[in-house]
Amino acid sequence: MRKSHPLRRVVLATAATVSGIVLLLALKPDSDPASSAAGTLPPQSSVQGGAAQAAGTATVTGDAVQTQYGPVQVRLTVANGKITQAEAVQTPKGGQSDQINAGAVPKLNQAAVAAGSADIDSVSGATYTSDGYKKSLQSALDKAKASAGASQGSGAAAQVSGTFTGDAANTQYGAVQVRITVSNNRITKAETVQAPKGGQSDQITANSVPKLNQAVVTTQSPNIDAVSGATYTSTGYKQSLQSAIDKANASAGSQGSGSQGSASQGSASQGSGSQDAGSQGSGSQGSGSQGSGSQGSGSAQASGTFTGEAADTQYGAVQVRVTVTNGKITKAEAVQAPKGGQSDQITASAVPKLNQAAVAAGSADIDAVSGATYTSAGYKESLQSALDQAGG
């Protein structure tokens, strides 16, 4: 009878277990698809701070519409072609307007989401606000539709690069307007092209704007903190920044359809200069820059309508729109000019001369009109901005 050897049994059992583990390991694939995917970043389809277009969601800001009591501007969040949120980023302020808007705007927001269109009823007692709201809402819907249409047929996510200027946001102390430079979907620079001026505003602006600019580049989003002591400037800055980001995201869809991302800077033109008092909100459509996208080859001549940035003067904003055909200015017009008192007479006399000079010179190198120094300076500044967008 053979003796039992417990130690040998243990050794054999251990060997069998090790062999089984080795076989299992040999059958396991070299890489785990799930873990590989988890470590891969998805392609970035839009500038951060705005809703990703590829995901079917976008945030679009309509043109500011001037009313008798102040500008109204609407921002929409659209998901898969449906309005999921509506909000007013600008409304008339001061006096009775605060009370009227507190009651009317939430109703208008709710109606926009419910209707899914700009075909909504005015709120009783808020006729001017309602009218401006609906016009700005329609502008936002037009932009959302244009962006969605352009992005169809574009396979891979487009890389956004270019310079985009947000709508000017009115504050209690003056307009704030932000321009961002984007390179491969990343904000590389932020700057203000308009900020409150005069008196204590100069000191506040000088202190707060550099901090806001730096915060944007750091966070890559409009979700930045307000600068202490500069609440109004900070609020206006963030509104205009969001508008610039919206425009950058909208341009992403157009790149796959033949128009260049960098050439799409024209579409960032100030629809917005519209916010200064007396300005024509809807008159300064950023969409006026269509046609510039075709210049990507470098040899093509610009054709289209380009609206320059609103230039603040001592007596009010000046904003110029030019029509360009085959690289030549065929028409120039002022969509904003100083108004009220003696300014009406000066503007009526000076602007036609400036318009004529712009067409004749084909550039912003034109003479100031005697007796209209401020208007002339603002005109030339805005004209140069429009020509920059046209590529000339």
User: Radius of gyration over alpha carbons?
Assistant: 28 Å
Helical segment tally? Answer: 8
Strand content: 15-25%
Low-confidence stretches: 24-46, 48-55, 255-300
| DSSP helix fraction | 25-40%
Task: Round the mean pLDDT to the nearest integer and report it.
Answer: 76
What sequence of helices (H) and strands (E) makes up the elements?
HHEEEEHHEEEEHHEEEEHH
Overall shape: it is globular
Largest sheet report:
4 strands, antiparallel
Distance between the termini: 107 Å
Structural class of the secondary elements?
Answer: alpha+beta
Which helices and strands, and how do they pair?
Blueprint: H1 6-27, H2 33-38, E1 57-61, E2 65-67, E3 70-79, E4 82-90, H3 96-115, H4 127-151, E5 162-165, E6 169-171, E7 174-183, E8 186-194, H5 200-219, H6 231-255, E9 304-307, E10 311-313, E11 316-325, E12 328-336, H7 342-361, H8 373-390
Antiparallel strand pairs: 1-3, 2-3, 3-4, 5-7, 6-7, 7-8, 9-11, 10-11, 11-12
3D structure, described in words:
This protein is an alpha+beta fold and 392 residues long. 40% of the residues lie in helices and 20% in strands. The protein is built from eight helices and twelve strands. The strands form three sheets. Strands 1, 2, 3 and 4 form a four-stranded antiparallel beta sheet that branches. Strands 5, 6, 7 and 8 form a four-stranded antiparallel beta sheet that branches. A hairpin with a 2-residue loop joins strand 3 (70-79) and strand 4. The longest helix has 25 residues, at 127-151. The N and C termini lie far apart (107 Å).
